[in-house]
Write a structure and sequence with these properties.
Chain lengths: 186, 67
């Protein structure tokens, strides 16, 4: 429940954070199942045709987006609205670059290991599941950006920003495991 | 001008990103080391710990004043 001023009481904020962490843990279980399926189905085998440079590039882009998301949250927590808006916008742009990279990756993957192949099944399901999370995170970031532009949020009143940014970091953590699982192992 | 506390936190974020970038570079080479799966798992866990603690403020759950 939000108070008239929009601020959450300390116990409400704690409960909101706990709820989000529980959601993140359940999401982590989902990703773990997909990662485990890759090893169960294929062991450590991987095709030579994987575009290693592209994989490394989009990994770096996602890591960079975690930094800009962190900066956005930190800025609004300290009342720097311009910094919050600038960094949120950068995070959204980097999300777009990441998704564009995944599209390029998919075009190549369809040629070398389509979804009907064993590696293709793992590759498309893992990158597809993750891509949907990136897309939903980007939509949420656009939401807090637009609210922020209208003057919402400020020091002590930025739980929506914190929640979205935490979710964004989780999306990054998921890729931390997906990247070696698909590109490096083997 | 940014206040000192904000500048400190932004600087900490940059250092964490630097550590994550270094670990990603190490990961790239670790893929060809013996027992690569083990090394890659250790590096992924280290990256997760950095993100969870410094970017996601995981310790806020037990120490609400943190962050």
């Amino acid at each position: 429940m939000q108070h008239a001023a929009g601020k959450l009481a300390a116990h409400e904020l704690h409960n909101a954070r706990l709820g989000l962490w529980l959601f993140i843990v359940s999401e982590a279980a989902l990703f773990s199942a997909f990662v485990a399926a890759r090893y169960l189905n294929l062991g450590t085998a991987r095709p030579e045709e994987l575009n290693q440079l592209l994989g490394l590039a989009i990994t770096t882009v996602l890591l960079l987006s975690s930094l800009t998301a962190y900066r956005a949250e930190t800025c609004i927590a300290h009342g720097d609205r311009a910094g919050f808006l600038r960094n949120t916008l950068w995070t959204i742009l980097l999300a777009g670059v990441f998704l564009a990279g995944v599209v390029v990756e998919w075009v190549e993957a369809f040629h070398y290991f389509p979804p009907s192949t064993r590696f293709g099944t793992s590759f498309f399901s893992l990158t597809g599941l993750h891509g949907l999370h990136v897309l939903s995170g980007a939509v949420l970031l656009v939401g807090v950006y637009l609210h922020g532009r209208r003057g919402r949020y400020g020091p002590g009143d930025y739980w929506p920003v914190e929640g979205v940014v935490k979710y964004w970091h989780f999306v990054d953590v998921a890729w931390v495991f997906i990247y070696p699982t698909l590109y490096l192992v083997g | 001008m940014k206040d000192g506390k904000l500048a400190d936190k932004l600087s900490r974020g940059a250092r964490v990103f630097g550590a994550l970038a270094v670990l990603t570079a190490v990961e790239w080479f670790a893929a060809s080391w013996p027992a690569a799966v083990l090394w890659l798992a250790v590096i992924a866990l280290a990256k997760t710990a950095l993100i969870a603690e410094y970017f996601m403020h995981a310790s806020q759950l037990v120490r609400p004043e943190e962050g």
